[in-house]
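Re: [ENG-882] Designed sequences occasionally contain unexpected residues at chain ends

Forwarding the minimal case from QA. Structure tokens:
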């Protein structure tokens, strides 16, 4: 292979699962795309796709090549970005990731600051749980991310920089029936559905032991904006770090619950995560600095828990 075009064509075919749609995506005719895939198979000495009456499927070799092709293409993009940004930040792309809670406040605020300073750099943000973000980072699909780091700190492949901690809180609709009770127990809480993002193992285990149930969450969703809307329009309960709902509570859109006789909920564990031993692009370096500054500058209303 003299360049990465054949790999790009193959990745497009795998992602679109259709020759015509893939050809359109890479601006080729369908016969030209077929010839490119055949040339790639010839150069590698193996079949990448099994063609049949209903279309095609990837062979075992195809699955392996797809995995490596994505990494090579991501590396090529990263190299181009780093070179184009070396002299200045007047161009290029920045691929970022964020966990559900940082994506609800800290990350968009930092993105706004970055966009004001470097308006010609295009940003792409992936929101997901920490497990998927780690995979995307190690596959070079994103350059760094901000997320819960409890399950990541011991991974030698990662560089983790902790950010501010925020207390965890339980919240509900401002007219929720539980707010009328003078003291709440875990059994009171279990009368209603509880929604949340994917929990770190340590947090999930502690909650399961405290509640005495195998599955603590009734609804799991890694989009926190969806969770807030769910809570604000129903009797579903949820939990989150204080910083992402503080202004909603202050404005009366959400309310806090307190469980009597139980320890406080875990604090957040946000951190900036990148690959250990890898240099960041100039854009990513600037982004990291802005996240740090935004984290220090953030003004969060004081947490005042209801009596109970």
């Amino acid at each position: 292979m003299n360049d990465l075009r054949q790999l790009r064509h193959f990745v497009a075919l795998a992602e679109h699962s259709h020759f015509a749609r893939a050809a359109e995506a890479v601006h080729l005719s369908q016969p030209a795309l077929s010839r490119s895939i055949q040339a790639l198979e010839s150069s590698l000495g193996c079949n990448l796709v099994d063609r049949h009456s209903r279309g095609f499927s990837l062979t075992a070799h195809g699955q392996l090549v797809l995995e490596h092709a994505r990494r090579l293409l991501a590396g090529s993009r990263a190299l181009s970005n780093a070179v184009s940004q070396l002299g200045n930040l007047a161009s290029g792309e920045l691929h970022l990731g964020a966990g559900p809670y940082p994506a609800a406040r800290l990350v968009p605020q930092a993105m706004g600051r970055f966009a004001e300073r470097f308006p010609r750099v295009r940003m792409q943000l992936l929101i997901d749980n920490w497990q998927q973000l780690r995979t995307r980072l190690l596959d070079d699909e994103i350059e760094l991310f901000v997320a819960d780091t409890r399950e990541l700190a011991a991974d030698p492949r990662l560089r983790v920089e902790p950010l501010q901690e925020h207390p965890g809180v339980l919240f509900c609709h401002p007219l929720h029936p539980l707010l009328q009770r003078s003291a709440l127990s875990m059994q009171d809480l279990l009368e209603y559905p509880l929604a949340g993002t994917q929990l770190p193992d340590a947090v999930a285990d502690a909650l399961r032991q405290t509640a005495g149930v195998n599955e603590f969450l009734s609804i799991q969703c890694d989009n926190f904006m969806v969770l807030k809307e769910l809570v604000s329009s129903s009797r579903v309960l949820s939990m989150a770090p204080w910083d992402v709902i503080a202004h909603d509570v202050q404005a009366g859109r959400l309310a806090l619950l307190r469980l009597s006789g139980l320890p406080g909920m875990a604090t957040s564990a946000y951190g900036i995560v990148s690959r250990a031993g890898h240099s960041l692009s100039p854009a990513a370096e600037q982004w990291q600095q802005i996240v740090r500054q935004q984290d220090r500058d953030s003004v969060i209303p004081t947490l005042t828990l209801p009596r109970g």
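QA comment: On inspection the terminal residues look reasonable. The chain is about 40% helix and 20% strand. Proposing we downgrade this to a documentation issue.
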